[in-house]
Predict the structure.
Amino acid sequence: MSEAQPIVVRRAGAPDVADLARIQLVTALHAYRHIFPEDAPKPTHEALRRRWAEVLAQGALFAAEACGEVVGAIHAADLGTRGGPGRLSVVGEIGGLYVLPQWWRSGIGATLHDVALDHLRSLGVGTAELWVLSENTSVRRWYERRGWRLLEGVTRTVAGPVFDVRYQRSLT
């Protein structure tokens, strides 16, 4: 990694899906090794490639490039309106924030995060949400420093004893 190299964030498209799957696979195997049991099934490149293609169809996808290669990704989607009478709000979601481990602490994750939130704001979204692995405490603290707040009691099972928690923040 060279700090002198510029980081370029751009809209990603279908030709980027294989790179995004590779980034997620490398990052997840490194970052989540202490969270998932050793005997847990590992994601495959092909399954992740299909998932990124689905994500691309559901919202905006952004890729970060450095030194001529794609090194990070995030997606942002408008989830529509929620709430009861008199409480409607437009809600968006970010997710799939992955940066290759050798680029951690380079500012790429923060840049991708901010681009995704700016995109949601441009759509008129007032509240953003995201899911984080409950045991991924360092990433949870990273989001909390950026204004995200845990939605108490909102979880979803990922696999076996591993689950996600939901975070939310205002975009106004």
